[in-house]
Amino acid sequence: QAALGIAGKVRALEAKEGCKGKGAAVLSAVMATNLPPAHPLREALTSALAPLVTPLDAASSDEDKKEKPRPLSPEAEVLLSLLVLILVIDAKKKEEGCALADTLYERLSAWNRRTLDPFAERLYFYASWAYECAGKLQDMRSKLLAAHRTACLHHNTACQATTLNLLLRNYLHYRLFDQADKLLTKATFPEQASITQTARFLYYNGRISCSL
């Protein structure tokens, strides 16, 4: 519910006159009213958004900063962080995107909550995308392998399917067909995975089969 509340606040701010298309200013305002100064993610998120917020946008969000920050649930915190990461990636801030993704990885590992599984799945996807945009996709491989092992141990179907597909994409990106094939022989794609992930898995599987 808290995560949905954050999404509602973002939509409400975007609906204000003059705020449409100013995602950085909107997220900056939401952070100002929800993340206290001592929050472990406050500095990282603020630094990532700073280059994307114009002086006029910053001035318009000063009113929101007067509100006393309210504590966020882990789900709402990760959702807010994901929105910032997506904005940074869209702005083609490659190194900043990778650094922020690493910070969010560390923050996510501090919790052990099954309610975070859907957000973790999205984080893996966008973190991999950030590294791919930066031309450093190979640096994500060990993290994805660890995430996939954890997802399998926790019977986390969504993360299991997503991380497996991201690993296959990673291997295919560098034409490591043999390693991709070995992964397929050891890993099991969950039958309960979404249609989107199933389609991606079949596509990657077909590419690997045709390349051997």
Automatic annotation (TrEMBL):
**Descriptive protein name:** 26S proteasome non-ATPase regulatory subunit 3 N-terminal TPR repeats domain-containing protein
Tell me which Gene Ontology terms the entry assigns under biological process. Answer: ubiquitin-dependent protein catabolic process
**Domain 26S proteasome non-ATPase regulatory subunit 3 N-terminal TPR repeats, chain residue ranges per copy:** 63-209
User: Which Pfam families would you find in this protein's record?
Assistant: TPR_PSMD3_N (PF25573)
Extract one GO cellular component term from the record: proteasome regulatory particle, lid subcomplex
